[in-house]
Amino acid sequence: MTTFQTDTPITPLRQRIQQDMVMRGLGSHTQNDYVRHVRNFAAFLGRPPDTATAEDILQYQLHQHETGVGPATINSTVSALRFLFTVTLNRRDLSRTLVITRNPRKLPEVLSVEEAARLLEAAPGIKYKAALGVAYGAGLRVSEVAHLKVDDIDSTRMLIRVEQGKGRKDRNAMLSPQLLELLRVWWREGRRRGVMLPYGWLFPGRSCTDPISSRQLHRAVQEAAEVAGLRKRVSPHTLRHSFATHLLEDGTDIRVIQVLLGHSKLETTALYAKVSTRTIHAVAGPLDRLMALMEGKTPPE
Q: What are the BP-aspect GO terms (predicted)?
C-alpha cells in the first residue's frame, strides 16, 4: 500500500501525483504546495490518502475549521486534494465532497504617488531602488522582478519581457523612459561592482549566479517604508497595486491595465476601481444634490 510517510523519501503515489503535475504544467511552487497538503491529509488519516472515504474528507475539513486554519489554506488544500482524487486517483466522487471556503476579499493597500516616491527614495541602495522601481513602474509581481534577466529589458521597443509569470504565462510589461534610465544607472553600478553578468540576472542575489530572493525584496520594502515614515502596511505587492490604481486614476482603460498586469479575468482588475480615489471623488453624493435643491441651486452632475 502506498503512503506519504516522512520516513519514505518518495512513494509510488507521490511519484504518480508529481508526474501528473509535471505533465499538466503546474509550477514548482504549486507542486510543493500540493504535496505538502496531501501529506498533511495523510497524517490526519493515519493511513494512505488513496484509502480515504467521503466521511474522512468531511472530518478533515471540519478539523481544519475547528483548529483555525485560514480560508486561503483551506482552499489551497481543496485544490490539492481535488487534483489527487480527480487526476491521480480518478475518484471524482470524492472530489465532489470537498467544499471551498468563502474568503472575504479585502481592498488592497495603495500608496499615493507622493508616498510611492518617498518609498523609492528611501530604498537601501541603487539595486533595491531599481528593483522597487520596476515593481511600481511596470506593475510586476515580486517573483517576476526577482527573476528578470538583463536581456529582458528591451530598450528598443520599450518593453520588459516577463517570462513564465503567474500561471506560467509570458507577457510584455511597460518600460517608461524614467524607469529605463533608473535601470541604466543600476546597470552601470552593477558592472562597476562586478556583479552584473552580460546575460545574467538583472538583480543578482548574494551570488552573481543566483537571482535576488523575494525575501530580500520584502525586507528592502519594509526598511524603506520605515525610513520614509509610512504607517501603511507595505510589501512589494503594494507597489503593484499602486501601479494599477494610479493608471486607472490617470484615465487608462481598465482593459489595458488588465493586459499589463497579466490578469486572466477583468473582474480581478476591476477591484482597483474600488480603491481609486479619483473614481470615488468623481461621483456626486446624494446629500450634495439634496442640499443644492434646498438652496435653490442646480444640483451637481
A: DNA integration; DNA recombination
